[in-house]
TrEMBL record:
It comes from the Eukaryota. It holds the Pfam family CUB. Keywords: Disulfide bond, Hydrolase, Protease, Serine protease, Sushi. InterPro entries: CUB_dom (IPR000859), Sperma_CUB_dom_sf (IPR035914), Sushi/SCR/CCP_sf (IPR035976), Sushi_SCR_CCP_dom (IPR000436). This is CUB and Sushi multiple domains 2. It comes from Salmo trutta.
Length: 298
């Protein structure tokens, strides 16, 4: 300022370590409040580290001094107060470095009413986490979603004629090793079922493997009201007379029979007079076989 004595218009500013905050950089430093001076009494400070999905934090301690057993620092593997505590430190010993396995990390510091100490200084660096196991190839189905990092989810869908066995959505879990939260599902051909669609395919149980002995499967196909159902046997390796497919013109076996189908008989397409058709397959030999039936509402 002007005058015979030169002085600043304001007192020099101070840089003071704050109690808590948000860190979103790929590397950074966290200081106890007041560092390198003593931290204040009755402090409860929370810092949250937010990194991109697929990264964890490598935490290294440079200084550490707290009142043993009363003032402590916690590192939590996640963004919540209830997230798993992976390190709790108190006293004079500098803690070892540690790795978080989440892209979100919580640092919590508590001090009581007595014996203030210099506190702590730590630094963190982002490191790339391993991905969960690649689910491909997913036999007889498709996987929706290309991310296999921690916290990411993928969905499983089966090809027409197959049924999903297991959970359709899996999420990559946090942890020192990357694991999906549930086992991989699988796509299987169901032995029968209640089908409601205007077109599709019925496969023999176990397709494309041969069907088992003593199978007894029933499918009820329902298309839109006003349509009939047309069956076309595009593959028929069913060995009569003990293995056979029976078709009825309606929802029950008391309806008019449209035919019994095996690989030794002429197999013209079967058509219903209503919007429902019943298909039953029975096998009683150990020879095995295959079939594939396309259906369409017409």
């Amino acid at each position: 300022m002007p005058g015979t004595v030169r002085r600043w218009n304001y007192p020099p500013p101070l840089c003071i370590a704050q109690c808590g905050g948000i860190q979103e950089e790929m590397e950074g430093m966290i200081l106890s409040p007041g560092f390198p001076g003593n931290y204040p009494s009755n402090s409860d400070c929370t810092w949250r580290i937010y990194l991109p999905v697929g990264y964890g934090a490598h935490v290294q301690f440079l200084n550490f001094s707290t009142e043993a057993n009363h003032d402590f620092l916690e590192i939590r593997n996640g963004p919540l107060d209830t997230s798993t505590v992976i390190g709790r430190f108190s006293g004079q010993d500098v803690p070892p470095s540690l790795l978080t396995t989440s892209h979100e990390t919580t640092v919590y510091f508590h001090s009581d009413h007595s014996q203030n100490k210099p506190g702590f200084r730590l630094e963190y660096q982002a490191y790339e986490l391993n991905e969960c196991l690649d689910p491909e190839p997913f036999r007889y189905g498709v996987v929706v979603g290309a991310g296999y990092n921690v916290g990411q989810s993928i969905a499983f869908e089966c090809l027409p004629g197959y049924q999903l066995m297991g959970h359709s959505i899996l999420t990559c879990e946090h942890g020192t090793t990357r694991n999906w939260d549930r086992p991989f599902p699988r796509c299987e051909v169901p032995c029968g079922g209640n089908i409601k669609s205007d077109n599709g395919t019925i496969f023999s149980p176990g397709y494309p493997e041969e069907y088992p002995t003593s199978a007894d499967c029933t499918w009820l196909i329902t298309v839109a009201t006003g349509l009939g159902v047309r069956l076309n046997f595009t593959l028929l390796q069913v060995h009569g007379p003990h293995d056979f497919i029976t078709v009825w013109d309606g929802p029950q076996e008391t309806a008019r029979k449209l035919g019994v189908f095996t690989d030794g008989e002429p197999n013209e397409p079967a058509s219903s007079t209503s919007n429902q058709i019943l298909v039953r397959f029975r096998s009683n030999t150990e020879k095995g076989g295959l079939f594939r039936i396309n259906y369409q509402g017409m």
